[in-house]
């Protein structure tokens, strides 16, 4: 920002009782004449010292400071500053749009009432007089820190309304030589005559503010944090949220039994942090090297999830689920990390708290370190079985378990109570090495605490060489008073499973150590080196003869550097050359003739070469105004002569978010890097370019991104755009998706056969896609034109041949006409309904789809086709050459989803039986079991169609265990189709063809007539009727038997063809008879028939018996 006085302000309303975390000072008026009920203005002194990146000195005084001009500036320079544009206390004088993107050019805010200025924060360029004048009678609070001279304003110039409270809003996000970072700092490009460098280095509090309900709503009256980019630095995690009343608190991650270190220790240069990161990196590399992999930076190299997945596979000895092998998009990286985290929680039982996939992808180092620590606790301390362990460890924490094992191994006169200071002198470690392998280090009792590094180095080297204990800590790190216990626990956790090598030189205390090969190694490569610069050293055998020489150059973070070894016959010496790639202390092991040389391994410090950031510059279209939304752009970074380092780029969008754009930085030539990025929103962006964690020349760059539209990316598809199949009277619909096409409006025009306009209706579906439909009223050729932002989309205009209405009765239905997945069969059913003609099928789409047809021999057919690619398919069902009703069917196939197995779905129950089980107006139930077929969030789709393909209501009850109880109520005695799909794929047996029958009611069967009434006589023919007209469908069975003898009576059954039957019979003798009637398998109540003799003996008179 050019000008002679630069200021950024921060304020919020609230109790004046807390300072930013890390600051020292207070907020309170402390002068005799300062009103007791008025707050003071916070005064920050300029300071050359910093504490962990925060302001080191603050004091409360009744005065306001602002960033004034450097010493020696004149009033004329101040006046020139005012001419360039002044914005303060609600007043602006024609600031440029590039300089103040949130203020329209030429806006005038003069004479703004003080009531509208309360609690307003401003981004200000002001001279001393302006500030003094306009601070009166307002509650505007300015807070700035200048590394040059500051000018105080008296308390009389800072009169504030009574009852106001002031407090800093958030942390000071800067340190060292950091520049001001603000959106709109420059207009982009290579600069111009008006771009003068600032006159003094500014260190500015640059944070968001907490709005008050009383803040002005007018955009030109307030300046919020969305126009201020935070002070980004590589390797940090930033938050763009508005600060809360309590500042300085970070999210706390819960670990298994260890709290993370206090936030005050999290400075970039905290010693314990560097030691811990190195230790965790080496531990990770010890496991990754078993599969030929390594990691250099835990913060960045786990972001795509691939190395994390491989690490978890190595640790668990299990194969993780399918994941993206080459993740390019953020969503793919998040999914990969989620695969690993989900596996650790569900399969390995590791409870992960407050860490999700976005933390790893967004490279939040603190949480990444927390995740690695969880893995160390589980796989290196909690889970392994230790041979010598005889303690009860079931109820112990991992820390207690490890400490218990160590105490069990160590002699009683070596007290160890912690994992930090007790290990600083190396004696306890030497004792542990000898305890694990008695005789390997018997002289540890003679060691002196003052020889801490020598003791530690010797113990670690013995453990590494003869016990195979990886050197996860460097000697100088273990003896560091600031070493953290997590690092020490990680290193010591390797000892319980240590195994002594057969060639280990065991001896008694006082015996001489095994002699090493005579000779010497010397040269600059053993004294120190610089990253990226080749160095060498010489190995000189004492006999000047060639022998087997093995040189191992070990990185501080694990892994090896390549070393070139050659022998000079003339001098009898070896030459060794290597090129270190990382900074830190390298270990160079020199083994001659199978034995280590004296002094091996050599500790060689490797430093980063000095970097001159002023020699780095950047240029390219990606740094100029006019970059287009969604269109890739790039720029180049040139680092010739700047020294060894890597560039880093952070792009802040117009809303102040730094994670919406992920720039890709790649080396295209020596000392030349190409940065590619794709902006996703329009507006002013801040492109921050760092080299060696410092801003390069002219960084940050202000880049204005303009909206873009890409009609070629618009997708339009649907039956209403099909070249054939649409008929008069149809509703021809289609949808339009503008995802990824930028800003623009969709317009649709439909013209009829004679060029007439056809009305078009527009709606929006649940997915946000726009749907359009039209109704053709006459046959002929129609033209559908789809435009986006005034331009035709791909394939537009569409030619649609509309046919006459059809009387074909053929219908098609099923999940294969609605959707599905690639590489899974799609099924549907065709019902001919008595139509005569040859069926045909045509499928058009992104892949060929083999079609298989099965004739059901009942006037229907099952069709199956196999799409091999995702996308939209057009399925034509033809009778002869004519499309049936609703053809073509527009089907969208998704990508195949791992873990989806529709073939495992089972369906069973009375409601699916083909015949005899389902009755009209009676609920029919069945069950769908989807256990093991896919994830619980996928639900089966179930629908029932009658003969006319009209839907029948289905009630589905989710039982909560991936089983579903289904019920439907048919109303017609016709064939029904029950269709069940899972993930858009038909399940085995679907569609289920169910013949619904009329309901049977035996109680409505009537038996009547003279043959079942009183007065039946033997040897006389009679009859009765069985009436089942209203009882429903069913067979009638009838039997008449003699109750005395059990003999059957012959019956003559006549079908009246109206649901009734006439039964004729003749009883052979008088007596009791039983009539049995069965209807549809149901027994009716038996009927008793009393048969009288065929003669009436009561009318017979007998005479002549008197004689």
Automatic annotation (TrEMBL):
Q: Does the keyword Lyase apply?
A: no
The answer to keyword Repeat applying to this record is: yes
State the Filamin repeat positions: 520-606, 608-705, 706-802, 809-893, 897-996, 997-1093
According to the entry, every stretch annotated as the Calponin-homology (CH) domain falls at 274-380, 396-500
Please provide, alphabetically and separated by semicolons, the GO molecular function terms listed in this UniProt record: actin filament binding
Highest rank taxon of the organism: Eukaryota
Which keywords are on file for this protein? Actin-binding, Repeat
Polar residues bias locations: 196-225, 237-252
GO biological process, alphabetically ordered: actin cytoskeleton organization
What segment(s) does the record annotate as region Disordered? 187-253
Record-linked SUPFAM superfamilies: Calponin-homology domain, CH-domain, E set domains
Gene3D superfamilies to which the protein is assigned, alphabetical: Calponin-like domain, Immunoglobulins
PROSITE patterns associated with the record:
ACTININ_1, ACTININ_2, CH, FILAMIN_REPEAT
Q: InterPro entries, per this entry?
A: Actinin_actin-bd_CS, CH_dom, CH_dom_sf, Filamin, Filamin/ABP280_repeat-like, Filamin/ABP280_rpt, Ig-like_fold, Ig_E-set
Name the family the entry cites.
Belongs to the filamin family.
- PANTHER family from the xrefs? FILAMIN-A, JITTERBUG, ISOFORM N
Q: What is this protein called?
A: Calponin-homology (CH) domain-containing protein
The organism named in the record is Plectus sambesii
């Amino acid at each position: 920002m050019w000008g002679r006085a630069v200021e950024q302000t921060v304020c919020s309303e609230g109790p004046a009782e807390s300072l930013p975390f890390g600051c020292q000072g207070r907020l309170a008026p402390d002068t005799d004449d300062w009103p007791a009920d008025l707050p003071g203005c916070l005064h920050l002194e300029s300071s050359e010292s910093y504490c962990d990146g925060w302001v080191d000195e603050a004091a409360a005084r009744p005065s306001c400071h602002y960033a004034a001009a450097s010493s020696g500036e004149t009033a004329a320079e101040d006046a020139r500053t005012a001419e360039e544009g002044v914005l303060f206390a609600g007043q602006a004088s024609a600031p440029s749009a590039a300089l103040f993107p949130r203020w329209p050019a030429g806006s005038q805010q003069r004479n703004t009432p003080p009531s509208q200025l309360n609690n307003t924060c401003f981004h200000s360029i002001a001279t001393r007089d302006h500030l003094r004048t306009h601070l009166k009678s307002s509650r505007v609070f300015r807070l700035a820190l200048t590394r040059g001279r500051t000018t105080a304003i008296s308390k009389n110039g800072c009169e504030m309304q009574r009852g106001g409270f002031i407090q800093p809003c958030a942390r000071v996000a800067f340190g060292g030589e950091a520049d001001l970072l603000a959106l709109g700092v420059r207009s982009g490009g290579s600069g111009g005559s008006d771009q003068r460098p600032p006159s003094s280095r500014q260190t500015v509090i640059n944070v968001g503010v907490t709005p008050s309900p009383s803040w002005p709503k007018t955009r030109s009256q307030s300046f919020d944090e969305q126009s201020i980019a935070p002070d980004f630095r590589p390797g940090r995690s930033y938050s763009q949220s508005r600060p809360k009343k309590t500042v300085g608190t970070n999210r706390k991650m819960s670990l298994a039994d260890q709290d993370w270190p206090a936030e005050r220790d999290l400075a970039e240069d905290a010693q314990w942090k560097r030691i811990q990161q190195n230790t965790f990196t080496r531990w990770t590399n010890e496991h990754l090297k078993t599969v030929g992999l390594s990691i250099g930076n835990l913060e960045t190299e786990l972001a795509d999830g691939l190395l994390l997945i491989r690490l978890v596979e190595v640790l668990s000895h299990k194969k993780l689920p399918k994941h993206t092998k080459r993740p390019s998009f953020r969503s793919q990286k998040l999914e990969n990390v989620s695969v690993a985290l989900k596996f650790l929680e569900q399969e390995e039982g590791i409870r992960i708290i407050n860490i999700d996939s976005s933390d790893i992808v967004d490279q939040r180092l603190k949480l990444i370190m927390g995740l690695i620590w969880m893995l160390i606790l589980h796989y290196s301390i909690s889970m392994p079985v230790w041979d010598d362990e005889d303690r009860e460890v079931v109820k112990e924490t991992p820390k207690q378990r490890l400490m218990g094992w160590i105490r069990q191994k160590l002699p009683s006169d070596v007290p160890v109570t912690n994992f930090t200071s007790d290990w600083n002198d190396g004696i306890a470690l030497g004792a542990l090495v000898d305890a694990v392998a008695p005789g390997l280090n018997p002289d540890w009792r003679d060691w002196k605490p003052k020889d801490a590094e020598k003791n530690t180095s010797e113990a670690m080297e013995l453990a590494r060489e003869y016990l195979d204990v990886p050197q996860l800590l460097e000697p100088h790190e273990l003896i560091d008073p600031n070493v953290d216990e997590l690092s020490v626990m990680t290193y010591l956790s390797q000892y319980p499973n240590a195994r002594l090598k057969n060639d280990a030189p065991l001896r008694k205390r006082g015996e001489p150590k095994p002699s090493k090969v005579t000779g010497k190694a010397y040269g600059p490569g053993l004294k120190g080196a610089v990253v990226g610069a080749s160095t060498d050293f010489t190995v000189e055998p004492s006999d000047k003869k060639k022998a087997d020489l093995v040189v191992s150059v070990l990185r501080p973070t694990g892994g090896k550097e390549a070393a070139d070894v050659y022998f000079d016959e003339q001098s009898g010496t070896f030459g060794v050359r290597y090129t270190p790639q990382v900074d830190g202390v390298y270990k160079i092991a020199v083994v001659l003739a199978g034995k280590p040389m004296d002094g091996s391994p050599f500790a060689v410090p490797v430093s980063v070469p000095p970097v001159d950031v002023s020699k780095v510059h950047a240029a390219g279209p990606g740094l100029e105004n006019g970059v287009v939304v969604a269109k890739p752009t790039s720029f180049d970074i040139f680092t010739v002569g700047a020294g060894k380092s890597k560039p880093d780029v952070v792009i802040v969008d117009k809303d102040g978010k730094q994670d919406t754009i992920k720039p890709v930085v790649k080396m295209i030539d020596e000392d030349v890097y190409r940065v590619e990025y794709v902006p996703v929103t329009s507006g002013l962006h801040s492109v921050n370019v760092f080299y060696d964690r410092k801003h390069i020349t002219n960084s940050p760059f202000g880049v204005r991104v303009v909206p873009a539209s890409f009609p070629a990316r618009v997708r339009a598809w649907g039956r209403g755009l099909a070249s054939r199949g649409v008929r008069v009277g149809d509703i021809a619909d289609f949808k339009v998706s503008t995802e990824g096409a930028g800003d623009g409006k969709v317009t649709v025009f439909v013209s009829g056969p004679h060029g007439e306009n056809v009305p078009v209706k527009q709606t929006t579906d649940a997915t946000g896609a726009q749907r359009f439909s039209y109704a053709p009223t006459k046959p002929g050729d129609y033209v559908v034109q789809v435009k986006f932002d005034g331009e035709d989309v791909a394939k537009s205009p569409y030619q649609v041949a509309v046919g006459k209405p059809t009387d074909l009765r053929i219908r098609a239905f099923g999940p294969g006409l609605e959707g599905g997945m690639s590489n899974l069969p799609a099924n549907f059913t065709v019902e001919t309904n008595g139509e005569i003609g040859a069926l045909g099928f045509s499928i058009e789409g992104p892949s060929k789809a083999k079609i298989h047809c099965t004739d059901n021999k009942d006037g229907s057919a099952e069709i199956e086709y196999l799409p091999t690619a995702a996308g939209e398919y057009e399925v034509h069902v033809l009778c002869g050459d004519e499309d049936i009703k609703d053809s073509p069917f527009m089907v969208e196939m998704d990508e195949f989803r791992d873990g989806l197995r529709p073939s495992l779905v089972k369906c069973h129950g009375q409601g699916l039986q083909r015949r005899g089980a389902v009755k009209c107006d009676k609920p029919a139930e069945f069950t769908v079991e989807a256990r093991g077929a896919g994830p619980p969030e996928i639900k089966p789709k179930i629908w029932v169609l009658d003969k006319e393909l009209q839907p029948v209501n289905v009630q589905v009850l989710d039982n909560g265990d991936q089983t579903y109880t289904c019920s439907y109520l048919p109303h017609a005695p016709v064939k029904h189709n029950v269709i069940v799909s899972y993930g858009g794929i038909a399940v085995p047996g679907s569609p289920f063809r169910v013949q619904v029958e009329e309901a049977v009611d035996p109680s409505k069967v009537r038996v009547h007539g003279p043959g079942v009434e009183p007065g039946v006589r033997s040897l006389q023919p009679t009859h009765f009727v069985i009436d089942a007209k209203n009882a429903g469908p069913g067979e009638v069975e009838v039997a008449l038997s003699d109750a005395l003898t059990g003999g059957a009576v012959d019956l003559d059954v006549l079908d009246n063809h109206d649901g009734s039957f006439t039964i004729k019979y003749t009883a052979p003798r008088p007596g009791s008879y039983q009539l049995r009637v069965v209807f549809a398998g149901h027994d009716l109540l038996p009927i008793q028939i009393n048969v009288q003799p065929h003669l009436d003996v009561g009318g017979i008179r007998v005479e002549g018996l008197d004689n």
